[in-house]
UniProtKB/TrEMBL annotation:
It comes from Tessaracoccus palaemonis. This is Recombinase family protein. PROSITE patterns: RECOMBINASE_DNA_BIND. InterPro entries: DNA_bind_recombinase_dom, SSR_resolvase. The keyword Transcription does not apply. Residues 1-85 form the Recombinase domain. Keywords: DNA recombination, DNA-binding. The keyword Membrane does not apply.
Amino acid sequence: MYAAGDATLEDIQSELTDRGLRTRATQRRPAGPISVSKIHQLLQDPYYVGIVSYKGDEYSGRHEPLIDRDLFDEVQDLMASRGRAGERRRVVHHYLKGTLWCGACWHRDQTIRRMIIRRTISRSGDEYLYFFCRGTQDGTCNAKYSNVQRVEDAVAEHCRTVQFTPDFIHAMRQSLADALTDQEASQHALKEQLESQLARLDTQESNLLDLAIDDTIPKDKIRAKLREIGVTRERLNAQLAAAVDTLTDAVEFISVNLRLLENPYELYRHGSDEVRRRLNQAIFTRVFIDHDEITGHALKAPLDDLLTVQTTYHANSVAKSCEEPPPGIEPFTWSEHHPATTKEGAAHKGDSFTSTTLRLPTNLDHRVPVSSKPHLVGLTGFEPATP
């Protein structure tokens, strides 16, 4: 029920109660429905896929799993996605919860307040859903209530504003392909260098063993040198193992984001409520709304950077078609905003992700940032640490 994406924990609680599941009665407390918190705990318990936890470690149990691993993982992903959006699903279920924020508060004094949803039933039995700012409950915001249906339409239409153009996607993909081609040569040179250093270590080790046989050098010094060689060999082998596909993860990360905004409106319009929820979480950090209208948004990284680059890309394309650039258009240099990234084709470990710079085709004279998973490159960079 939970993996289907439509049921809340309360729905599951009701279903279990209807089927006769109750807590065990005690002297103090009679039998009753399973609590919502217990259901939340059950959905995360790896025991049901055959895993036993003991003193913080997990072991394969002797019992037969009750559910398969794919279903368990799907439920964990769904619970995590709802948790990342900061949602409380105990009142009303809606895929926009956790995404909408009050535009009136933000534009008035930069205050961040979440929009919450409420359901009311009229005397005739009709149901009404609407979003409203949390600040209206304590009188700190006087924004009007927003009709849910009109907000849904506004968010869907807003997806048109965060779309990459075909020519920009083509230019970016060509740049990424060129970066991978350049990487092959540098990776080959790096491997040769590491293998050469490992060969020299083998020679040094062999010479030390010969000296040990002849008793030319004290045994303690030889053992210390051999330990030092062992530590160096382990470090070089680790670097050699890591010296593959350094940019591949970064390129794939950017490619996925390019595909995400290739046509987000159609993807959003035809998606289920759960697909829309995940799209909102993947694209937006916040969507600001004021009286049924979208008044602004904050995008997830790296989509915010890529859309900025796209704007500059088209501005430069227009400028190059004129004898003089239009007023107000300045050359874009990524290092002005992120000075830590300057070396072309190299990756540097940033605060929270690895960044690299790629040079786009000649009609765009600036550098384009891409980001990938953290810790792809050690603190010493590509070159091994040597005296």
